[in-house]
Amino acid sequence: MFYKIIRPIARFIVWVLNGHLHIHHKNRLPKGNYILVAPHRTWWEPILFALGASPMEFMFMAKIELFKNPVLRFILDHAHAFPVDRKNPGPSALKIPVKGLRKGKLSLIIFPSGTRHSAELKGGVLLISKMSKKPMVPVVYQGPLTFKGLLKRKPLEVNFGDSITIDRKTKLTHENEQILFKQLEDAWNSLDKELDPNFHYVAK
């Protein structure tokens, strides 16, 4: 219920601050729940992705430090967020999203690179996808990378791609992980070019 209440509020805030959110190829989203997988470019991407894929509701990982504030903890808990210690991620970093995905009601937003300043992809997303038997859906954001740019009302572009499914018989060896990561990176590049052939991401 809280998620359904906060979503229109978030949509209104985005409209007031910017007013130019454009969603592309929502028709590519699969039936049922799934894992939205994106390169990490801004802190507001999860909000835009969740708004773009509405009415689907999403879980997302949040750094454990945010849960120390009781007010913020209440909001995060009721917005389907779960804590992850980035320095020492435990089994819960996999068990919680897998369990949530298997129930079939919630999808997941995840950034395999972990941070905006890393290009190295981590295998957790592949394991979550295989264990939950849910497809990965590549998605990209193009638009302002700073809050100042957001306020200048430059367009916010979200582009959804086609699903990538990991066969249950596929073993997640290092070689197979690299093949799957290549699929994701190729999909992101294709989605970026689809929006803007001259796009090149530079971390701020």
Question: How would you characterize the overall build of this protein?
Answer:
- Keywords: Acyltransferase, Transferase.
- This is 1-acyl-sn-glycerol-3-phosphate acyltransferase.
- The protein is of the alpha/beta class.
- It is 40% helix and 17% strand.
- It has a single domain (1-195), classed as Glycerol-3-phosphate (1)-acyltransferase.
- The protein has seven helices and seven strands, in the order αββαβαβαβαβαβα.
- Helix 4 (92-103) packs parallel to helix 5.
- The longest helix is centred in the C-terminal third of the chain and has 22 residues, at 174-195.
- It is globular.
- It starts with a helix and ends in a 9-residue tail after the last helix.
Strand content is 15-25%
What is the CATH superfamily classification?
A: Glycerol-3-phosphate (1)-acyltransferase
- How much helix is in the residues? 25-40%
Query: Which CATH class?
Result: Alpha Beta
- Shape designation: globular
Q: Tell me the structural class.
A: alpha/beta
Overall number of domains: 1
- Number of alpha- plus pi-helical segments: 7
Q: Low-confidence spans: pLDDT under 50, at least 5 residues?
A: none
Radius of gyration: 16 Å
Spatially, the strands of the biggest sheet line up as: 1-7-6-2-5-3-4
SSE string, helices as H and strands as E = HEEHEHEHEHEHEH
CATH topology: Glycerol-3-phosphate (1)-acyltransferase
Largest sheet: 7 strands, mixed
